[in-house]
Design brief:
Keywords: Cell membrane, Heme biosynthesis, Membrane, Transferase, Transmembrane, Transmembrane helix. The chain is an all-alpha fold. It has helices at 3-27, 30-48, 54-78, 80-83, 93-96, 101-122, 125-149, 153-161, 163-173, 178-201, 203-208, 214-218, 220-243, 249-268, 275-306. Helix 7 (125-149) packs antiparallel against helix 9 and helix 13 (220-243) runs antiparallel to helix 14 (249-268).
Length: 307
């Protein structure tokens, strides 16, 4: 082999390596991980109530991030056929063929096992069990079965989506008490209008891929009714966390303000003609609402730590 060919292959490797790492990172859906880590923070500090242990904190944050990444990698494998049909997902690594199924499953297994070990080393058996259950619901029950077969797949998926803050809470509390139950209910209720809003502004994608989400199966008008109903249920559920003295006055103010504005937007949906634009606003406010609520849980818990 001449020097020119050798140099060319070396350059190709330099170009390919960063691309491969980007593909692997994309496989784990970093945006989903980031959002869930904020929720995990909220649950952790809600239970901490002024106490803090580095080992449990690092273990739960790293462990849940790895387990979520594992689930997302598995989801990419399962959904590769329908991802190819949707504009939002048709450029994912498995659809492009830049990562093989074997590689993706290997990465998922490595991340999942690492996450479980991390949680086991720094938290407790309940925390590990909840994280594994969340993974199983997302990968097995939702991705493998319900997503393609039933409009209730969104409801099933909400259980796994609500698990990170509960995992964070139980890493400190060591038990599934009323606080953990309230977090589970709050985040399950939040997931529904959040997910239905996505299904409305991604309606064409879901219909093309034959995914039976509520707006496709029963129509956008029915989805609006469900969005309104879940937000109406979400508001008292979120306030209950403060009224039960699990969270403070700052949390109550944020939950009431953001929940009220989210409800206002849901009601406006009946008077607006542009459903896509409206759904995007509902989606955006859902992100702001749950992020603000989670962060205020952290801030309220940190005040006595810094005093």
């Amino acid at each position: 082999m001449d020097h020119a060919a050798s140099a060319s292959q070396h350059d190709d490797r330099l170009i390919t390596a960063p691309s491969r790492w980007r593909d692997l990172l994309e496989l784990t859906k970093p945006g989903i991980i980031g959002g869930n880590l904020i929720a995990t923070l909220g649950g952790y500090f809600l239970a901490a109530q002024g106490q803090f242990e580095w080992l449990s904190f690092v273990s739960v944050m790293v462990g849940i991030a790895l387990i979520i990444a594992s689930g997302c990698a598995c989801n990419n494998v399962i959904d590769r056929d329908i991802d190819a049909l949707m504009a939002r997902t048709r450029h994912r690594p498995l659809v492009r063929g830049s990562i093989s199924i074997t590689q993706a499953l290997g990465v998922s297994a490595l991340l999942g096992v690492s996450g479980v070990v991390c949680l086991a080393l720094g938290t407790n058996g309940l925390t590990v069990a909840l994280a594994v259950i969340g993974w199983g619901v997302y990968v097995g029950l939702y991705s493998l079965y319900m997503k393609r077969r039933s409009e209730y797949g969104t409801l099933v998926g909400s259980l796994s989506g609500a698990m990170p803050p509960v995992v964070g809470y139980c890493a400190v509390a060591g038990q599934f008490d009323s606080g953990a139950m309230m977090l589970l209910v709050i985040f399950c209720l939040w997931q529904m209008p959040h997910s239905y809003a996505i299904a409305i502004f991604r309606y064409a994608d879901y219909r093309r891929a034959s995914i039976p989400v509520l707006p496709v199966v029963r129509g956008v008008k029915m989805a609006k009714h469900h969005i309104l109903g879940y937000i109406v249920a979400f508001i008292p559920a979120s306030l209950a966390l403060g009224l039960a003295s699990q969270a403070g006055a700052g949390y109550l103010c944020v939950a009431l303000t953001m929940g009220g504005y989210w409800l206002y937007l849901a009601l406006r949906g009946y008077r607006l003609d542009d459903d896509v634009r409206w759904a995007k606003k509902v989606f955006g406010v859902s992100i702001l609402t749950i992020t603000a609520m989670s962060l205020v849980m952290v801030l309220e818990a940190m005040v006595p730590m810094l005093a």
